[in-house]
Amino acid sequence: MADKTDTTSEPKPGDASRNTPPGPAHVSRRRLLGTAGAAGAAALVAGGAAGAAGAEAVREGPDPLSSVGSAAVPFHGPHQSGILQPAQAHAHLAAFDLMPTADRKAAAALMRRWSDATADMMDGRTPQGDELGVALDAGPSSLTITFGFGRTFFDRTGLAAKRPDALEPLPAFTADALDPKRSEGDLWVQIGADDTLVTFHALRMLQKLAAGTARMRWQMNGFNRTPGATEQPMTGRNLMGQIDGTNNPKQSDANFNTRIFVPDDRNGADGWMAGGSYAVVRRIRMLLDTWDNLSLDQQEKVIGRRKSDGAPLSGGQETTRADLNKVGSDGALAIAGDAHIRVASPATNRGAAMLRRAFNYHDGFRDDGAPDAGLLFVAWQADPLKGFTPVQRKLDRGDGLSRFLRHESSGLFAVPGGCERGEYVGQRLLEG
């Protein structure tokens, strides 16, 4: 896992990569309440500090809504949000099934409602008809909401002729122990934000707007490190303690778009997917009790990287390209033959790659006392038959890390491109 996740370094609070382009500030009801509260708190802190220790004791800091809370991601554009942006601190993944009476027209109306509400929430506005009040005092907090269609969606809406070939079911893998009730689905939603109440509010709004048209099939909660929690931006760690995401494709790569997004000039029955991508979603439980019993040296050999700083065992720093041919003083390969970074490397998979944007999860403890925890794996690619499938087959056969993982749910979803103002996500499919 260490070399397939999101490599984008964690931004500092207020990082421009999570903000909308420069322009007039929009003050919503949410932000107004939050700013008023923050201003009152700041006044109390400043007054108390001045009385106790003088001006030197007053620590100047950014208003909360000028950093993490105020960061906003645009809803409209060529691609949906939640693909290229850094993975946020909190997430919900969910799948919905259409009701038996819901047809193509009902699905289109639902996507219109969802898109309108999402545009409002991502900009920090209160959606029409929202009486929940959960996030009234919060800014958008880098909220992104992403929508996708599962294979069964096309049969239920009479659109089987427009189902992409790339949505063929994924093959079975040795480490699979899949629960059908927590897999697949007609509609898929990915929600991420840097505030827990913002993500919960978004999920509840989508669920309420789906009433009568679709019901939730499954839902999972994920998390990452909070922006600003480290002294400087750095690649995140997974629940095994490993720096996770060093070797992800980068937007600066010459072939990034061709690997991750469907070409803009796509024609034919699946031409509606132009500018879109395919998401493979897997709930991967980590056998942490077994893993934690390994020595540090054993753990590092399984991954092929140092645990302290993520540097490859062939030498260098985290971002140093791993030398898969280097031999140690003992005559053995510095990076073992079954080390994760060797088996997952594009160099050993004919260039196959995917953009991972994963979240950790912890759902309590199992009957045997082991933690029910691991990774909510989300991988993006232009074609899963050329991205996820060949790499996972290789990992399934020869990855030393597979001994410590169990894949317990799975889904594959077609995620259409973004939409312009006045449009909704999936409109080219549902009205084309």
UniProtKB/TrEMBL annotation:
Determine if Transmembrane helix is one of this entry's keywords: no
Which intervals of the chain are annotated as region Disordered?
A: 1-29, 225-255
Extent of the signal sequence: none
Catalytic activity of the protein: heme b + 2 H(+) = protoporphyrin IX + Fe(2+)
GO biological processes = iron import into cell
Q: Where in the cell is it found?
A: Cell envelope
Please indicate which superkingdom the organism of origin belongs to. Answer: Bacteria
Keyword list (alphabetical) reads: Heme, Iron, Lyase, Metal-binding, Oxidoreductase, Peroxidase, Signal
The cofactors named for this UniProt entry are: heme b
State the similarity comment. Belongs to the DyP-type peroxidase family.
Output this protein's name.
Deferrochelatase
